[in-house]
């Protein structure tokens, strides 16, 4: 249980932040677009009211009015959907809004072409998709291709002729440029996510090292406290029992004094490996200090804990070591969590049971009832 399963990785968090920023920026864009479109709607309306004969008035006025309505509606939907955390729905709504705005701008650009050959609105729409909203290359190509076909058809209907190649070149240039910008953003995001993954991996490795005993590879007391708290919380919520075994090596000082500390280290490493082989994956083995070890047995009653303790004790009793000619024994104290105690009291009872095992002859298991 190195980290909680619900904890996000750096890469996931970074991607989540980027997505949220992208969605939040669309709220501002929709409001500003709405103000811009409303201003033009009012301008065209005032000019018409003053009797100005403006060509294609109804087309311009209708286009900006619809864009105004869509933009403010988008802002309202953002407020409603973001509060309810309907992220996937909000993304679809934003894409549909941008798509509708894009085709409106294409229409306005066609109207402008009748006046002075200006395609500024269309080019703005092309670039907006690349800078304001992240689309995959396939969706971007499909979107721009559909926009280009729509432009050809509307231009032909409004002008009665096909657009000239000279006029088409700038549009194609912006089309290609938008794909290039989109690709650069995609590559940049991939690099950032890769860096975040590497940073996350390094973070996990450093954290794992900080939680393990460098000699035996077992977890240390720092991690033990977290795991024990987790077991205790499960016991309080669901009544799931758990036990601890506290044990140490008998006369280990004699081993160090007689054969050296390197031989003593070899014995500790072998005992740690034997301990890991004696427990389940849901249990935890800890080097508690010096030659002392602690086992946390998940979902285990005292009777089962005693069986595990005896199995471990007898396994240690017969094992042979390369560094020393003698056999080594261990003494164990076992305790099961009670309703009226905390983890500190549990460890204290196991420690007293271990002391009793030492006092009564060693190489035995004492149960704290």
Characterization of the model:
This protein has 369 residues and is α+β, with helices and mostly antiparallel strands. The protein has two domains: 10-203, no CATH class; 221-368, Reverse transcriptase/Diguanylate cyclase domain (Alpha-Beta Plaits, 2-Layer Sandwich), CATH 3.30.70. The protein has helices at residues 10-49, 57-83, 87-115, 120-132, 137-159, 165-210, 221-238, 252-259, 261-277, 302-318, 343-359; strands at residues 242-249, 284-289, 292-298, 330-336, 365-368. Strands 2-3-1-4-5 form a five-stranded mixed β-sheet, with helices on both faces. α11 (343-359) links the parallel β4 and β5 (365-368). The longest helix is centred in the middle third of the chain and has 46 residues, at 165-210. It starts with 9 loop residues before the first helix and ends with a strand.
Any key phrases for this structure?
single chain; 369 residues; alpha+beta; five-stranded mixed sheet; elongated; disordered N terminus
**If strands are numbered along the chain, what order do they take across the biggest sheet?**
2-3-1-4-5
Look at the helices and sheets and give the structural class. Answer: alpha+beta
Please report the total strand number as a whole number. 5
**Treating each run of at least 4 consecutive H or I residues as one helix, how many helices?**
11
Oligomer type: single chain
Count of domains: 2
Order of helices and strands: HHHHHHHEHHEEHEHE
Shape, principal axes of CA atoms: elongated
């Amino acid at each position: 249980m190195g980290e909680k399963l619900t904890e996000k990785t750096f890469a996931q968090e970074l991607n989540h932040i980027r997505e949220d920023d992208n969605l939040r920026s669309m709220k501002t864009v929709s409001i500003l677009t709405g103000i811009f479109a409303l201003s033009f709607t009012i301008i065209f309306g005032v000019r018409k009211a003053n009797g100005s004969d403006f060509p294609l008035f109804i087309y311009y006025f209708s286009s900006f009015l619809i864009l105004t309505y869509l933009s403010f509606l988008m802002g309202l939907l953002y407020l409603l959907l973001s509060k309810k955390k309907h992220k996937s729905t909000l993304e679809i709504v934003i894409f549909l809004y941008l798509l509708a705005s894009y085709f409106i701008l294409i229409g306005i650009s066609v109207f402008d072409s009748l006046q002075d050959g200006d395609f500024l609105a269309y080019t703005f729409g092309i670039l907006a998709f690349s800078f304001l909203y992240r689309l995959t290359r396939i969706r971007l190509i499909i979107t721009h291709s559909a926009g280009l076909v729509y432009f050809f058809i509307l231009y032909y209907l409004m002008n009665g002729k096909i657009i000239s190649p000279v006029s088409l070149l700038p549009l194609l240039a912006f089309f290609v440029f938008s794909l290039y910008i989109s690709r650069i953003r995609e590559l940049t995001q991939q690099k950032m996510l890769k860096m975040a993954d590497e940073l996350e991996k390094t973070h996990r490795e450093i954290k794992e090292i900080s939680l393990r005993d460098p000699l035996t590879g077992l977890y240390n007391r720092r991690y033990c406290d977290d795991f024990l708290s987790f077991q205790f919380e499960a016991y309080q919520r669901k009544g799931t029992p758990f036990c601890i075994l506290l044990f140490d090596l008998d006369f280990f000082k004699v081993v160090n004094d007689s054969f050296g500390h390197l031989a003593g280290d070899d014995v500790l490493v072998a005992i740690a490996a034997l301990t890991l082989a004696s427990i389940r994956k849901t249990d935890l083995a800890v080097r508690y200090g010096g030659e002392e070890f602690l086992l946390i047995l998940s979902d285990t009653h005292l009777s089962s804990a005693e069986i595990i303790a005896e199995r471990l004790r007898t396994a240690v009793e017969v094992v042979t070591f390369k560094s020393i000619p003698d056999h080594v024994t261990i003494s164990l104290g076992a305790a099961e969590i009670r309703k009226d105690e905390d983890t500190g009291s549990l460890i204290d009872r196991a420690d007293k049971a271990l002391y009793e095992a030492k006092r009564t002859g060693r190489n035995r298991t004492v149960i704290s009832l």
